[in-house]
Amino acid sequence: MSDEIKITDNFMFATVMQNESICMPFIERMLGISIEKITYLEREKDLRVDPFSKGIRLDVNVKDSSRTFTLEMQCLNKKDLRLRTRYYQGLQDISFLDKGNIYLNLPESYILFICLFDLFNKKLPVYTFESTCLEDNSISLNDKTHKVFYNVNAWEKEGNPARRALLKFFLRQQGGG
C-alpha cells in the first residue's frame, strides 16, 4: 500500500485546483467552455445560513465575471449526492444575494462532481442536469443552474478527447483502468 496522496483525495484535489493555471483549463475542458479570467478562487470554502444551520465545505469555489463553479471530488457514494447538489445550490444563491439585490443578479452556476463511481448506474461518462419542463422538454426554465456528475469509470465512452483524458487520469489515480 502506497503512502502517496493522490489527486482523488479531497484535500489534494482542492490543493491542486487552487492553482489558477491548473483550475481554469480543467474547468474549460470538463465543461467545453471558455473562461476569460478567474476573478475568485478559494479551496475549502465554508458556507452556512446561520450558526445553527447545516453548513457545507466546498472543495473548490471559482468565479469568473458572470459564473460560479463548484468543484467536488467524490470518492464514496453516500447516496445523498443528488440532494446535496440541491442544498449546495441554495446556499450558494443565498451567499450572492444581499438584501435589496434582485434575482436577475444571480450568476450562472455550475456544480461539478468528479465521482469515482457511477451515481446513476447508466454507464455514462457525464450526467448533466438543467431545469426543463416535463410536459414540453423544449421549454427551459433558464434558471442558470447546471449540475454535472462525472463518472470516471466510463471514461472510454467519452467522445471529447480532453475530457476523456481527464476522466482516465482520475481513474488511474484511484488505481483503476
What are the key terms here?
177 residues, alpha/beta, 6-stranded mixed beta sheet, 4 helices
Give a written overview of the molecule.
The protein is an alpha/beta fold. Helices cover 28% and strands 24% of the residues. The chain contains 4 helices and 6 strands, in the order ααβββαβββα. The protein has a 6-stranded mixed sheet. The radius of gyration is 17 Å and the shape is globular. The relative contact order is 0.15.
Q: Tell me, what's the shape?
A: globular
Number of helices: 4
Distance between the termini: 18 Å
Q: Describe the biggest sheet?
A: 6 strands, mixed
Number of strands: 6
What Rg is obtained from the alpha carbons, in whole angstroms?
Answer: 17 Å
Structural class: alpha/beta
Low-confidence stretches: none
Q: H/E order of the elements? A: HHEEEHEEEH
Question: How would you state the average pLDDT, rounded?
Answer: 89
Amount of beta strand: 15-25%
Range of helix content: 25-40%
Numbering strands along the chain, what is their spatial order in the largest sheet?
1-2-3-4-6-5
Provide the fold topology.
Elements: H1 10-17, H2 20-31, E1 40-47, E2 56-63, E3 67-74, H3 81-96, E4 108-115, E5 126-129, E6 145-151, H4 161-174
Brief account:
The chain is 28% helix and 24% strand. It has four helices and six strands; from the N terminus they run H-H-E-E-E-H-E-E-E-H.
